[in-house]
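Fold Annotation — chain and its backbone

Fields — amino acid sequence, structure tokens

___
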Amino acid sequence: MELASFDDLGVFEAWREAVGILPESVTYKEQSAGCTRVLSASTNYAGVFLRLVAFSETPGHDGGGAL
């Protein structure tokens, strides 16, 4: 099962805590030339493989392309 959140990393953190995923298990990446932050983590919860993923705009990024 995958739970995805957009534009609010706090939602990801709330779910991460609720299902007992350790903070050090979270991976951080950027995509779209650094415009978007991506957090992800996974666990087995109540017999179900659960993947959490969150997407958020990188602060201070104007969304413009490379010069």
Observations:
- The radius of gyration is 13 Å.
- The chain has one helix and four strands.
